Amino acid sequence: MFPQRLDAPQAYGIAKAMMDGFNRHYRLFRTESARAKHRFETADWHGQQRAQRERIEFYDLRVKECVRRLEKEFGAGAQPMDVWHQVKLHYIGLLVNHHQPELAETFFNSVTTKILHRTHFHNDFIFVRPAVSTEYIENDEPAARPTYRAYYPTRDNMRQTLCGVIDNFQLQREFADLQRDAGSVADAMRARLDKVRLRANFQIQVLSSLFYRNKGAYVVGKIINGFNEVPFALPILHADDGRLFIDAVLFGEDDMQMLFSFARAYFMVDMEVPSAYVQFLRSLMPRKPRAEIYNALGLAKQGKTLFYRDFLYHLKHSSDQFRIAPGIKGMVMLVFDLPSFPFVFKLIKDYFPPPKETTREQIKAKYLLVKQHDRVGRMADTLEYSEVAFPRNRFDDALIAEIEKFAPSQLEISDRDGDGQTEVIIKHLYIERRMIPLNIYLQEAFDTGLSDPRARQQMEHSVIEYGNAIKDLVAANIFPGDMLWKNFGVTRNGKVVFYDYDEIEYLTDCNFRRVPAPRNEEEEMSGEVWYTVGPHDVFPETFGPFLLGNDAVRAVFMQHHADLLDVAFWQTHQERVRAGYVYDVFPYDPERRFPHAAPAH
């Protein structure tokens, strides 16, 4: 029960110190995000990548700082529970009129669960549901930017309106020809609105901050006409001469889903009221969970909070059982899923059969590498959780037996909370969006028969996309390590994404070699590898036998991606990355680019 009186003098002090800790966190997070504008203007791509990596660490650092302060000043861990009840009530009071209340609640949860033992981790002490609404929060200070700006063009002045949209971002870098670019965007918008009557409410709404990622800045908004809303985004890039240009116009929910994909790095966006940005973006992508939108904005802890709330809600409203995930089992990760829920759960096994030589810490380091790296649309984001409790009666017995056999150190089955409910508690796991494993997707095409045009198209598309995925990873300085088809998945949009990270390496750490010529007949006829192989040696010529056993697959692969079997391809890209080159990797089809756009480089 909550206390009826707030009579603990230290409760307000603890609540205020926690709020100070959160405000410091968001101030630093926002400052780093705002600096992305200057890094874009000065083409500081390495600085942008570095900031991207470092910003991910901010949250945990601020939580640790806050925990240390609370222990030092208030002996927080030793305070009785009625004091903690009061702390939460004071904190709710401090959330009134706050511009980031939902993030501050999550910060409170993070700090509180670090201080209180999990047996005290009851709902009374944390924000299981939001206590403060995020609806209609606005910064009313005179100098504050609105969340979005509305523009009211006519068919005739669309170009000039679009020039005004871009000018409002005050980029400190010259455009090569903004009138030309705005004309191209206006033409595309007119084509989209062709023969459509402009209604009384015709307008363009644009979020007030640009979205920065990799080497691009994105204008994000929507066209409103009558009852119709059309989302759009404009990528702004640097030409070879350093001047700016608008590269394309992206339209509709599917294009926006690709831009905000879970397989891409987080954006840098300067937001005073993040919930208002999320609400606007949700209107552009109604099928995208709010958790994924918060993730895309770099607010990953809020994404985790919302994901877990969605998960608990789904558990309450479903009755199917967790099971061993279908597909080929991995040597390192044990994977399970809930058929009705579009995610998979992955835990690291306690031991790995030969030839795997790795450790739990090394695997966690690989997953962290992926989290901090530019995923260029080809590596799935993961949510990492500790001490996750599931209802025991929802677990298939075969799954329990599998965990007991391969990862007993990660499993506890108990009524830890003393509420009469037996739980399966997993010590550490990763959660990833479920995709169709590429080997299964290919097998579906073979099972239908390649004489069927749709099956053949499915096979060809898969093989081409597989090669494209590897080439995008190479451009991002990533060597996947294990390139078997089973380690790649197919998304809803038909994009091929890599998701098995235990052998991932930086491209620049690999030693790409040709297979040496045999010195005698005995070596030539040997079925074994007769030459020395170092720990980082990679022999691209040997990929073929592992990957291209099917003749139809081989024909498509060799037509589009034969260069992946040539050591020169890998060495050339490696040298460019080592020389500091940062590749363009577009979150849209290059065919969408305007004809005047600078060539991709």
Any overview of this molecule?
The protein has 601 residues and is α+β, with helices and mostly antiparallel strands. It folds into 4 domains: 9-120; 148-297, no CATH class; 318-434, Phosphorylase Kinase, domain 1 (2-Layer Sandwich); 438-565. It contains 19 helices and 20 strands. Helix 1 (9-34) packs across helix 5. The termini are far apart.
Furnish the topology, listing elements before pairings:
Layout: H1 9-34, H2 36-41, H3 45-74, H4 81-95, H5 101-115, E1 148-151, H6 158-167, H7 178-192, E2 203-207, E3 211-213, E4 216-225, E5 228-238, E6 244-246, E7 250-251, H8 252-259, H9 274-284, H10 290-296, H11 300-316, E8 323-324, E9 333-337, E10 343-348, H12 360-372, E11 382-391, H13 397-406, E12 411-414, E13 423-433, E14 436-437, H14 438-448, H15 453-475, E15 478-479, E16 488-490, E17 496-498, E18 505-506, E19 511-512, H16 521-525, E20 537-538, H17 543-547, H18 551-561, H19 567-578
Parallel strand pairs: 19-20
Antiparallel strand pairs: 1-2, 2-4, 3-4, 4-5, 5-6, 5-7, 8-9, 9-10, 10-13, 11-13, 12-13, 14-16, 15-18, 16-17
Helix pairs in contact: 1-3, 1-4, 1-5, 3-5, 6-7, 10-11, 14-15, 15-18
Count of discrete structural domains:
4
How far do the termini sit from each other? 63 Å
User: What is the share of helical residues?
Assistant: 40-55%
Number of DSSP-assigned strands: 20
Strand content: 15-25%
Number of helices: 19
Q: In one word, what is the shape? A: globular
Helix-strand makeup class: alpha+beta
Radius of gyration, CA atoms, in whole angstroms: 26 Å
In the predicted model, the low-confidence regions spanning at least 5 consecutive residues are none
**Residue-averaged pLDDT:** 91
What can be said about the biggest beta sheet? 7 strands, antiparallel
